[in-house]
Amino acid sequence: xxxASLAVHRGRSTxxxxxxxxxxxxxxxxxxxxxxxxxxxxxxxxxxxxxAFLKEMDIxxxxxxxxxxxxxxxxxxxxxxxxCTLEDRCRExxxxxSVPEEAIRSWYEALHRNSLFIRGMVxxxxxxxxxxxxxxASLLRELKGQAxxxxxxxxxxxxxxxxxxxxxxxxxxxxxxxRYADPDEGLSSQAASxxxxxxxxxxxxxxxxxxxxxxxxxxDKITAGSGxxxxxxxxxxxxxxxxxxxxxxxxGETSSLPAGRAIVSTRWRGLPSLVEGNxxxxxxxxxxxxxxxxxxxxxxxxxxSERSLPEMMGEQVIVPLGGSEPPCPTLPFIYLNx
Length: 338
Prior knowledge:
By secondary structure, the protein is an alpha+beta fold.
């Protein structure tokens, strides 16, 4: 959706194919409305990548600027807030965990430097005056070098026993903001830098109905410009040769659509067969595809009386389930969003 709306914004004739699925909002009798996807969106802080994109598209970010603790972690014997400023967060962590404040501060500062580089490289990759593929590859190599340099001497901290409880919290926080839960990659990496910096910047808070409002606005931009949106039962195949052919099924009938280029979601079920045989694409798929991760999240939507909630409960709560043990491959935790 983002790629299609940006292509239309830049004057390209674009067709967005959507496989029919449930609405983004789940409604129950009595006026209860829930986002089907409860996880926060990253990059919505004033300097964030997604906020910059929405500004270019002339779409309101729908941010919720109310004050208060955004994220709270609940452990077996205590709870603590994760404030959205570096000073306050380092102070809270130092108070609640037996880790040196200077060590956690150095790690957050390295994370912030990597995040600034990522935020700067996105518009460079999208600059039509650059060779997009070559420029992106160069920037990704540079980013990896930056992360290794900035985190030098800090990675071993998370292997120490006194850091394990904090590590569980940070791994869960990263999984929430990245939707890419791979404990093997570690917290001292370029991916963790961007995800956790969004949490630290506090630019993820949307009012009720904010997500579907952004999605609806992006679709309106497509249909109001040089684009179209077509819903189908299934996109069965994409063939890439001298041109692109898309096979889709609708109402029991199969149709073929020609195209100049195709942009494919990593969540499309046909992606593995599309990249098979292409070494570069296969490596990218193995690295970034959310389908390969051993995580099976599920969501429960509950209507709860205000009287049943603790008075000091944060709006977004992380409850790690690993205790003081090292994180297991599935990163068990509960995420509450009220």
